[in-house]
Specification:
81% helix; globular; mainly alpha
Length: 123
């Protein structure tokens, strides 16, 4: 039973973090709707994918050092939640914060699972 829990704690944050990064890249597809040139589209795609690329680097580092993934994903969730509340100029802050939980809640869960894996590895 303990090995099943250890495998769950080991693989779940890694798989969920990859899925989250792939989900974030979907938001960059809107650059193809514009009638821009090739290099402008490549630059816009790169700029839109900066958060996903940063999280991909964090996944790569946290594959061995879970503490990095735990802290980074929780921090990323907090930063995204706060920034979505602060830039809520169209709708009230509570509506934009509820919609931002679609991204933030998985980030918090992933970070927590990375920290649990780190604590279990320390024992």
């Amino acid at each position: 039973m303990a090995t099943k829990i250890n495998k769950f704690v080991l693989w779940t944050p890694r798989i969920l973090s990859i899925i989250l990064v792939l989900f974030l890249t979907i938001f960059s597809w809107d650059v193809f709707d514009k009638n821009s040139g090739f290099w402008q589209t490549v630059l816009a795609l790169l700029i839109h994918n900066i958060p996903a690329l940063l999280l991909a680097v964090i996944i790569w580092i946290s594959w061995k050092y879970e503490i990095v993934g735990g802290i980074a994903f929780i921090f990323a969730g907090i930063v995204h939640l706060v920034s979505s509340i602060l830039r809520a100029d169209v709708e009230p802050w509570y509506i934009s914060s509820v919609f931002s939980l679609i991204i933030d809640l998985p980030a918090f869960i992933i970070g927590t699972l990375f920290l649990i894996g780190w604590f279990k590895k320390r024992k």
